Each structure stands twice: as C-alpha cells, then as structure tokens.
Amino acid sequence: MSSMTYSRGVTLRYAVMGLLMDRPGSGYDLMKRFRRSLGNVWVASQSQVYGELNRLADVGVIEVTSEGPRGRKEYVLTSQGEAELQEWLARTEGRKPQRHEMLLQVFFFGLLPREQVVQRLARQAEIAAEQRAALVDIEASIDWDDGAPFSASGRLALEYGLRLRAMEEDWARWAVAQTSGPAGTADDSSECERRFRTPAA
C-alpha cells in the first residue's frame, strides 16, 4: 500500500505532517503546537498524535532524526512526505457529507418539552461564547508579525473560528427567541447577519 493511499481521507496525518514541515519535533513538541496553533481547527489527543507518528514513520513520510532520554524521538518530514503534503494542499475535494450531531438533535427538538429545548439552546449559546473568548485570548497572545511560515495562514484559520463561534452564539440566541416567544415575534434579521453583512453597492 502506498503512503498516499494510506493517508487519504485522514486529516490528522496531514496536520502532523504540516507541523513537521514547519520544523522537526517530538511527539511532545507536536502536542504543544497542536494546543497553541491548531486547537481551533483540529483537536487531537496525545495518544492519537503519537499513534499517527508511528504510522507515518512506518510508511516513510517522516523519519526519526535523533533519540534522547526516556525514549524521546525527534521526527522530520521526508522528501516523500513533503511531496504528499504539497499534493494534499493543492487538491480540491468534492462536497463531503455533512455530519453535525447538534443539528441532528435540533431537528428532533419537537419531541422535547419547550422548556428543555430553551435550556439546551441557551447552553449552546454559552458554549459558543466561551469558545470564542478562548480564541480571543489566543489571538492576543500571538505575535502575528514574527515572520513565521504559519503566521499569516494561522491568522486566517483563527478568524474563521472567531466568526464561526460568533455565528453559532447568535444562531442559538435567535433559536431561543423563536422557541420561547410567540410564533413570528422573533427578529428574523440576526445580529450576526447585521455584523457581517456587506453594504449594497
């Protein structure tokens, strides 16, 4: 099985490869980078990252360059890995199936008492607000002008997360109004729409 066939469709592998293309590192190093830079777009546990490093090394897209105390291994992306990563970055995928558990639950909220639905939606708004606040803290802690390869693109990804969390909070609060108030009384023009709407020419 080729490494390209092995890797296709498993995005964690490309996240690990991309971080190693930036600079070599150990599993511990990668976990720190994940939490600081990729936590907004991709969540991975320590066992997932270490397991992925082993699999990528087995197929030759990364290799161990040094070993230290307590079994610490430092990895680097190979030329084969660089070629595969570049191919993945340039590839345009077709539309993928949508799987969103929370929205699936929303579809069946009619089976729950109204009070429970309102509480569930209000909590969703709180979660989105908490997540957005965490991203604001991350944004403030990073020197975006440090010239690092991922600074500009990382800021693009972070901005997506900020806008997405703002939209989710706004939608949840709108849904609370739709659910708790008389039908037709909620404002159909949401705050998020007003915030990001482009004025007509």
Task: Offer a concise description of the structure.
By secondary structure, the chain is mainly alpha-helical. It is built from nine helices and two strands; from the N terminus they run H-H-H-H-E-E-H-H-H-H-H.
Structure, described:
The chain is mostly helical. Helices cover 62% and strands 5% of the residues. It has 9 helices and 2 strands, in the order ααααββααααα. Strands 1-2 form a two-stranded antiparallel sheet. The longest helix has 30 residues, at 151-180. The protein starts with a helix and ends in a 5-residue tail after the last helix.
| Average residue-wise pLDDT | 80
Strand content: 5-15%
Shape: elongated
User: What's the assembly state of these chains?
Assistant: single chain
**Overall number of strands:** 2
Poorly predicted ranges: 1-9, 184-193, 195-201
The major sheet is characterized as:
2 strands, antiparallel
Global Rg: 21 Å
**Approximately how much helix is present in the residues?**
55-70%
Strand/helix succession: HHHHEEHHHHH
Could you give the order of strands across the largest sheet? 1-2
